[in-house]
Amino acid sequence: MDRGFLAESVRSALEAIKTNKLRSLLTTLGIIIGVTTVIAVISVITGLKQQVASSFSSLGANVLYVQKFPWVMGGGGIDWWKIRQRRDIGMQEVRALKEYGSAFKYVAPQISNRFEVKRGDKKASGVSIDGTTEDFPEIMNQRVKLGRFLSADDIQYRKDVCVLGNDVATTLFPDENPIGKNVRINGRLFTVIGLLEELGEMMGQSMDNVAIIPYTTMSKFTGIRRSITIAVLTEDEEEAREEIRWILRRTRKVKEDEEDDFSINSAGALTKQFNQLTKALFIIMIGIAGISLVVGGIGIMNIMLVSVTERTREIGVRKAIGAKSSEILGQFLLESVMICLVGGVIGVLLGFSLTKLISLAGKIPFGMPIWGILLGFGFSFVTGVFFGFYPARKAAALSPVEALRYE
Amino acid sequence: MSKLIEMENVKKTYKLGDTEVHALQGVNLTISRGEFISIVGPSGSGKSTLMHIIGCLDVPTSGEYHLQQRDVGEMNDDELADIRKELIGFVFQDFYLMPDVSAWYNVSLPMIYNRIPPKARKERAVQLLDNVGLYHRIYHLPNQLSGGERQRVTIARALANNPEIILADEPTGNLDSKIGEEIMKIFYRLHEEGKTVILVTHEHYVADQAERKVHLKDGMIEFEE
Description:
The complex is a heterodimer. By secondary structure, chain A is α+β, with helices and mostly antiparallel strands. Chain A is 57% helix and 18% strand.
């Protein structure tokens, strides 16, 4: 297409849109809604994925969590009642895994509870207290930035010592070195032996509002009332999973024809589940977007037919001064594409704002992929061409004489 | 003078619902290059139809029409569009200017379809407007111009691609007689400059200014003078 002719077509299309601002806007509403939906959904899901990926990575790669309850309730056929009836997981299972296991490097119990931690008149509430062993930091890839972690001795002799997470430490010791100082956890006196490096947030919750104590001490002063978690660091997740199943089924005397009465959870399985969920969401939203684009497209076709009728005389004049049918076709096609692209631009901007709002309100990272924007524009472009073709062809096929005579 | 337009037994039939309208019933007409000719006749005599066929806006139902020795009946739509673009300049009774663009842009429109570069386009449009005495009106919109000025813009537009033939359909029909005479002067000048000017009109004082008058009645040429 020649540049002069293209410029004239663009000018004429803009003029037509300008003359009928409200009409054009209403016409593009379907496109706007469609593109907004596409952009917002893609962006929010991208943001969620980023967050989930970073959160799950803090759960540790190659770490399996043996627990009473599964994290993932997928696939149907899971009998919640049956799961509730499962026997608790306790230290017996930890010992069995340590004794018979060969496919994994570290095994550690994790007994969790929430208590208040106090020092003098300062207090940190809702602190997650984890009772565990000296192997815990290896599995969780945790580092001590000051002091030391729990030792085998601390575990064996049920010492009243604790390692504090960053949040707790800064609350209780705003301007002094906490090592060697005493704190009270649920009323019991503990000596601080170390400080953990910061971990950040997961799913909007701080991972640093923790204190770690020997599991032996934990069971001494609270008892093990609930089922515990066993964290296992593996090299090959699948192999380790099979071995854990084999060991636990024997230890817990599960009959051959019965299902496992425990769950082996991992970040990988969680990610998989999440991806399935987002995929379903994607398909639904793309469907909604598709429908609104079709509705919008029909609107475009309608308004372009009106436009062709209104401008019959103009078409006649253009033909009289030498415009070819193909040039009339191009002009009207361009007009419908431009109306759609205006809708696309508004849709992208609205989608952008909507995503920004959602990310602010939901504390989700803001992610707006370029391909999402391109998809939005692509959609509106294709709609413009597809639904603009029939009216444009009608304009092109007008006989010059009849078009000039049209009143 | 060489023959520009040769029509032989040209007929045009329209279908209006169930009835057939025989707008032209066998016209034989030859026009040479550089002639100043008027086609006159009462309404319904077929003069508009004849003009449309001469201007390649329409094709005959039967008969032969040769334009510059080329058979128009054999041409496809794109070739007809090229003829209109390069050989013919139309001047309409109702001007048919684009309402939302300035005078010079209106004049430049045919050049857009002729792929003239933007700068040359504007220069020529301004020159053409200057030639019809509208240099001071180049940026005005059509509705800011008087009827006579609008018709002069239309004439400038008709000349944009330097056509051989100027085809005017009742060019003074919407103007008072004084303004109409001014417009006629322009046509006369164009004729003197070598253009072939064909006027379709029912006003005799307009038709009289042409060198040759073709009277049309009931779709046939009644007589010439």
